[in-house]
Amino acid sequence: MKNHGRLLQGNEAMAQGALYAGARFYAGYPITPSSEIAQECSRVMPKLGGVYMQMEDEIASMAAIIGASLTGAKTFTATSGPGFSLMQENLGLAIMGEVPCVVMNVQRSGPSTGLATKPAQADIMQIRWGRHGDQELIALSPSSVAECFSLTVEAFNLAEMLRTPVVIAADEIVAHMRENIVIPEPGEIPVIDRAKPTGDPAAYRPFAPAPHGVPPMSAYGSEYIMHVSSSMHGPDGYSNNSPDNAARQIARKNGKFEHHRADIVKTKAFDADDAEVLFVAFGAVTRAARAAAAKLRANGVKAGVLQLVTVWPFPTEAVAELGSRAKTVVVPEMNYHGQIAGEVKKVLGADADVRRVNGWNGQIITPRDILKAI
Amino acid sequence: MTCATKPCATAPYATGQQYLKDGVLPHMWCPGCGIGVMLRACLRSFEELGYTNQDTVVVTGIGCTGKLDDYLVTHALHTTHGRALACATGIKAAKDDLHVVVFMGDGDSVTIGGNHFVHAARRNMDLTAIVINNFNFGMTGGQFSGTTFNGAITQTSAYGNPERQLDICALAEVAGANFVARSTPWHVDDLTALIGEALSRKGFSLVEVLSPCPTHFGSNNKMKKGTEMLAWLQEKTVPVDVWRTMSPEARTGVFPIGRLVDRNEPDFNARYREVGARATGN
């Protein structure tokens, strides 16, 4: 029978994407506007032999998905700004311990409780720099319900490939929007599993140097004993205070993202090749930017859109290539300070004509708002 | 090679030394500290219960007690401060056939980590929590914690602690733990037996180990020697059977020791299996 698709909400599509990727362990704490992800998981997981855990807070949610991932499971949580703030310390643990997991941050307006049910894109810098120490992670930002599904599968693949947490930087708009999407059949989209150790178990070292910087990962219960630590550790996972070791571990844990940059950094370009006016957008605002560009094209202005599918690591190459070709670059985003505009300026230089369009009142930025910048 | 550093194949009793990493002794804990005594009791119980490196996960937090995973060759997770039980909850919920043993101090368990402690006990997660309560933050130099007595002198309570101490075992009991026990390194045989019992129980099991900290808590409170602190612990504790006969006034400042709670409620994973059966109609 032909798969005609289903009318799904973005939050439901993220939950379905996680299941498609093989995730069978969810731990979270309900928070608007992400709660439908928890609700979907609570209904589906028990049927699939998976686990739904409702933890006492987001600190514990992050901790639980780390613990479960170390048993070999694909694990995830979902939250919004206040909960994401609470997850930061244990996100650092996942980075230090190189524990694959996915964190869905359905961004809402802040600071603090803010406009709790309204959208924002103001956690972009918190996602990148919210933790102490030298660290890197991956963030993907969906602009549609279909991307809520496909980028979630991609997030798990990258998490497994790189042994890292991956954040889905969604927003309230894509999370609550309903669109018809076709859920692919099993096998249609590749699903990647973490590399497991082989050879002599006694020689296994979970944090050893490895090709492209990602050592194979054992699981609790395996004969390959795995010692994982929040403290600086040697290749064997045991505490190690030597400066040389610390320098090597930090360089490898960050360098693995450079090695895999081509796998990680994805953008989409719409009419951007000859664009004199280039909109650089991400998440729900991509849709407004595309409408604005279409309007300009209809009026004879060469306008296009560069969508940042990957937000972190920042897509420097695509921004440099298309941005330097354009006369004017416009960055619409739902935050006050222009968090992505700052990154675009960093890439294109102080002399480039980079214009900001910011909204921070809990409303989506409209094509009309964007066109005012031209 | 002596029995102090290598497994003694010929020892007529369980030593637990097969779980110790080679070449790590002597350990880092101060003379007079109770952590070493507790760890030995625990490793002996591992051996008696037939635990293997493969099926055992040791989870630790941060602080003096949190250092002990570095001495062991089992699977291990050294977590952030206070979050050991939340990480352990994820491990056990995902893989039920593991022995998950969580080692914490009074800071990890009921000060910064109090919320996780309450809820791990409420869920009756099948974990064994061993808490070293030395009445202060040792690793950071002896500041008061959630279990420091009112009036005690510490590095952050020079004129006496204005706060009151939390009763860890009472908290575990009201939160719903299956098994709750308390002992001290002075009562080492009882301690070993209670840890063995806690490890072999389903559901949330807690052993609180009242522990000397002569370096910090003791030296600030007129007990500079480990032996003085042991004598103090002996004086401060009474068997729970006796404690139950004492008047409320006489119980003040006295810790009941022994097996305090012994229940057999289903653990989280058992209840979750029932949920799974209902969801699938089996």
TrEMBL record, chain A:
Q: Which residues form the Pyruvate:ferredoxin oxidoreductase core domain?
A: 275-370
Enzyme class, one word?
Answer: oxidoreductase
**Per its UniProt record, what SUPFAM superfamilies does this chain match?**
Thiamin diphosphate-binding fold (THDP-binding), TK C-terminal domain-like
Q: MF terms per GO, please?
A: 2-oxoglutarate synthase activity
Coiled-coil segments, which residues? none
The Pyruvate flavodoxin/ferredoxin oxidoreductase pyrimidine binding domain, residue ranges:
17-234
Enzyme Commission number: 1.2.7.3
Q: Which UniProt keywords apply?
A: Oxidoreductase
UniProt protein name: 2-oxoglutarate synthase subunit alpha
UniProtKB/TrEMBL annotation, chain B:
UniProt keywords (A-Z) are:
Oxidoreductase
Q: Which residues form the Thiamine pyrophosphate enzyme TPP-binding domain?
A: 71-209
Keyword Oxidoreductase listed? The answer is yes
- Which InterPro entries does UniProt cross-reference here? 2-oxoacid:Fd_oxidoreductase, THDP-binding, TPP_enzyme_TPP-bd
Gene Ontology terms describing biological process: cellular respiration; small molecule metabolic process
Against PANTHER family, the record matches this protein to: 2-OXOGLUTARATE OXIDOREDUCTASE SUBUNIT KORB-RELATED, 2-OXOGLUTARATE SYNTHASE SUBUNIT KORB
Q: This chain belongs to which protein, by name?
A: Thiamine pyrophosphate enzyme TPP-binding domain-containing protein
Q: Specify the species.
A: Rhodoplanes roseus
